[in-house]
Backbone:
């Protein structure tokens, strides 16, 4: 075997590093250290009316594959409805967000290229003790904005 060959990786159901991030449950199935920095793959569960604030990445593209639920994405100037089976691509540089507009939790597979943004989620997110019990209280917006900046993201202030 060549030293440059990677070993296969299997992440079983229920496995992966989990974090609560702005009310969403994010489970990292593969991160940069597993993929030589090529991509990060996560599963994101969003409660009804949940989702991140509008933001822009300077380093990463995001691809969202909706497994369950009804979401509304805003990417650049476009608003897109996305139900199970839909794929939405958010290229770096474009402001984007999504909201769960359904009445049930949504579930998406998110691929982030290249890898590295998982470090932001690890730092801003809260460790998960019980996946059925999200933390109470609103996220610390100032901390979120400061950490986003550290990782090459922009979160504009909410519109008045």
Residues:
């Amino acid at each position: 075997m060549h030293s440059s060959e990677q070993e296969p990786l299997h992440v079983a159901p229920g496995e992966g590093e989990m974090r609560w991030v702005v009310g969403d449950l994010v489970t990292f199935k593969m991160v940069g250290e597993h993929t030589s920095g090529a991509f990060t793959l996560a599963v994101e569960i969003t409660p009804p009316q949940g989702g991140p604030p509008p933001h822009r990445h300077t380093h990463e593209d995001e691809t969202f594959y909706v497994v369950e639920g009804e979401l509304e994405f805003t990417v650049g100037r476009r608003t897109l409805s996305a139900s199970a089976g839909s794929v939405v691509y958010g290229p770096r540089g474009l402001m984007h967000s999504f909201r769960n507009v359904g009445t049930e939790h949504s579930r998406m597979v998110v691929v982030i290229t290249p890898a590295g943004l998982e470090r932001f989620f690890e730092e801003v997110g809260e460790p998960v003790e019980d996946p059925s019990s999200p933390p109470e209280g609103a996220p610390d917006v100032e901390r979120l904005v400061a950490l986003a900046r550290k990782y090459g993201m922009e979160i504009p202030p909410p519109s008045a």
Notes: The chain has two helices and twelve strands. Residues 141-150 form the longest helix (10 residues). The chain has one domain: 17-127+138-153.
